[in-house]
Specification:
This protein is an all-alpha fold and 629 residues long. 50% of the residues lie in helices and 1% in strands. The radius of gyration is 25 Å and the shape is globular.
């Protein structure tokens, strides 16, 4: 396949595409990974481009090096699927992963129209991929209730658990907070106390990642809604079960920014035990203290603790000095993290790139070698998984990994290429039917807790990397994301911040943005900072993110009084080594290890906080705003 053909498909240059085909360029010549022009048209091009290629003899059943077909890559668009089916696409072709078009389609939301088309063409329901993911497993992860109903009516097995993390359809549905799907599965005799077990937990260089031991109730507890928790309890869900880390449903219910007092009450009424502890020695009360709700703490026989008072340093550096010191620390520690773990992490490479990009755009010298290494760590992971990105939604944290990866690339000015083309196609395929981007089942506050953050990052990514061949579709997806941000209910400050930036990226008017900024500005504390949620002390994570968000949306300039006060807070709380300390509230999965950043078990959230702080401070490094206290 020639670059000219790829470029014509990507740009939706239909006359150029026809001209190349008229010059005897084959519509079936693959590239080095055996990806054909038709497959690329399914990924990055338009329906019209696909029609041209099919009319010119493109093989609709050609498979790439991973065994994928154009049909598998088209399942989020009923029109593309219909085109391929009408021209003989094989609905039961199997990729090397073991996935079929039906499994991949079921991961999307909405999916019922495509799933119905595939079933009508004879797609097999009783298939599973190499990790035992069935169409029903995929559908309950994807979250289209009508697809779940359709597959159940087609006698899909409700008991199969995948072998990666061991999730059953009911565990998936509970993690998605889908009450109706949970009721459907229970009516088909799904096991309410199934425990997720794996044939091999994910491993990194520092040890085993503790995914597993989950039940439907453990997956439902962090986010509810209470109705879902009640359905599971009424069906006999065990209330004191513990996952691999020792967490009980009660601990997870109080250990999230999305906690529900009603859920906590129900768990206690059903006999939730206050005594169990995690492997880290933490009780439900210990976790409730991390989130500070007096009523929840009282229900666990605790007494509210006074809010920590932030004491600002008497001597503060200039904004430029603060930025310079922090950049050096982030360069060192993000490199150490990668060497020790051998993996990408949302809380490592992205904040380093957030900081470097902010500094670079404000004329501050950056260690470009360190920045290139971070981007390489991000892109090398994506290169290996590129074509597989279109074979179904990433399990668990994989979706957030994609979003934080692409956010770092957007901020660093990374130019569109094959890597971002696959990323954009993945993000487009797995937008929810409500317009938002979601990750079912687990909470790691604050970095992996907010669908507002996921949706804002996805909007920015699609705006930057959506291909011209899919321009109309991408515009529609961005608008749907905008509507999600407008109508979803914010809970914490991060929701408000990310709603603002997502709306700005989606093209909201200055008047709309000023209105959305009002609740954010009103939360600024007397010390100049912002807190992650009511009842918390101001910190660098919340303050840095908020200042960056207000500036990104064009609501505040660094010279404005509110911004200057926020800068004063950040300068007054920076440690001598260039870091900021923020306490962790995340339910951890990884084995503890020292990554090189200070603060022990608080190191990773503090790394992210430092990245946000520099993102806010870098624009304030001009002479007029360098010293603000």
């Amino acid at each position: 396949m020639t670059d000219k053909l790829y470029d014509a498909i990507r740009a939706n240059d239909l006359s150029g595409l026809k001209a190349l085909l008229d010059q005897s360029v084959s519509p079936n010549t693959p590239d080095g990974r055996q990806i054909t022009p038709l497959m690329y048209a399914a990924e990055i091009g338009s329906l019209d481009a696909m029609k041209i290629l099919v009319e010119r003899g493109a093989d609709v059943n050609a498979q790439n090096a991973f065994g994928s077909t154009a049909l598998m890559w088209s399942v989020s668009d009923p029109q593309r699927v219909r085109l391929l089916l009408d021209h003989g696409a094989d609905v039961n072709r199997v990729a090397k992963s073991g996935r079929t078009a039906l499994i991949i389609a079921a991961f999307t939301d909405p999916s019922v129209e495509v799933v119905r088309m595939l079933l009508e063409k004879g797609a097999k329901v009783d298939v599973m991929d190499r990790r035992n993911v069935t169409p029903l497993n995929a559908a309950t992860f994807g979250d289209d209730t009508e697809t779940v109903r359709l597959l159940l009516n087609a006698r899909a097995d409700v008991t199969t658990a995948d072998t990666f993390i061991g999730l059953t359809p009911l565990i998936n549905a509970a993690g998605n907070r889908n009450v109706e799907a949970v009721k459907l599965l229970l009516a088909h005799e799904a096991n309410v106390n199934a425990v997720s077990k794996t044939e091999g937990l994910p491993k990194i260089q520092t040890g085993t990642v503790e995914f597993g031991g989950w039940t439907p109730l453990l997956m439902a507890a962090p986010f509810g809604p209470p109705e879902l928790v009640k359905v599971l309890l009424d069906a006999g869900a065990k209330v004191n079960v513990q996952d691999y880390r020792g967490f009980t449903p009660l601990m997870l219910a109080v250990g999230t920014d999305r906690y529900s007092r009603e859920t906590v009450r129900m768990l206690l009424e059903h006999g939730a035990d206050l005594r169990p502890k995690t492997h880290f020695g933490e009780s439900a009360l210990d976790w409730a203290y991390k989130f500070g709700d007096a009523e929840v703490i009282g229900s666990l026989n605790g007494s509210p603790k006074p809010q920590t008072r932030v004491v600002l340093n008497e001597k503060t550096p200039s904004a430029l000095a603060a930025v310079t010191k922090s950049l050096a620390l982030l360069d060192s520690t993000t490199s150490q993290f990668f060497m020790k773990s051998g993996c990408f992490a949302c809380h490592e490479q992205p904040p380093g790139e957030f900081a470097a990009s902010a500094a670079r755009s404000n004329g501050i010298p950056v260690d470009e070698k360190a920045s290139r290494e971070r981007r390489l760590q991000i892109t090398s992971t994506l290169v290996s998984s590129g074509p597989v990105q279109l074979e179904g939604a990433a399990a668990l944290g994989g979706a957030d990994n994609n979003l934080y990866s692409v956010e770092a690339l957007v901020r660093s000015g990374y130019a569109p290429d094959h890597i971002t083309d696959f990323l954009a196609a993945n993000l487009a395929a797995y937008q929810g039917s409500d317009g938002g981007w979601h990750l079912p089942g687990y909470s790691r506050s604050p970095i992996q807790d907010s669908d507002f953050s996921r949706t804002a990052m996805a909007i920015r990514a699609l705006k930057k990397y959506g291909t011209p061949g899919r321009a109309a579709e991408i515009t529609g997806r961005i608008e749907r994301g905008k509507q999600f941000l407008l109508h979803a209910e914010p809970v914490i400050l991060e929701d408000l911040d990310m709603r603002l930036t997502g709306m700005a990226a989606a093209g909201a008017s200055p008047a709309e943005l000023r209105k959305l900024a009002g609740p954010i500005l009103s939360r600024q504390r007397a010390d100049g900072g912002w807190a992650q949620r009511d009842g918390f002390a101001s910190d660098a994570y919340a303050t840095g993110m908020t200042l960056w968000s207000l500036a990104e949306a064009g609501v505040l300039r660094p010279s404005d009084a509110a911004y200057r006060k926020g800068v004063g807070f950040l300068l007054g709380t920076q440690s001598a080594d260039g870091s900021w300390h923020v306490s962790s509230r995340a339910t951890k999965f990884q084995q503890y290890f020292e990554s090189g950043f200070p603060y022990g078990h608080d190191q990773w959230i503090s790394t992210m906080a430092t990245g946000w702080a520099i993102s806010a401070l870098a624009p304030a490094t001009s002479e007029s705003t360098a010293h603000v206290r």
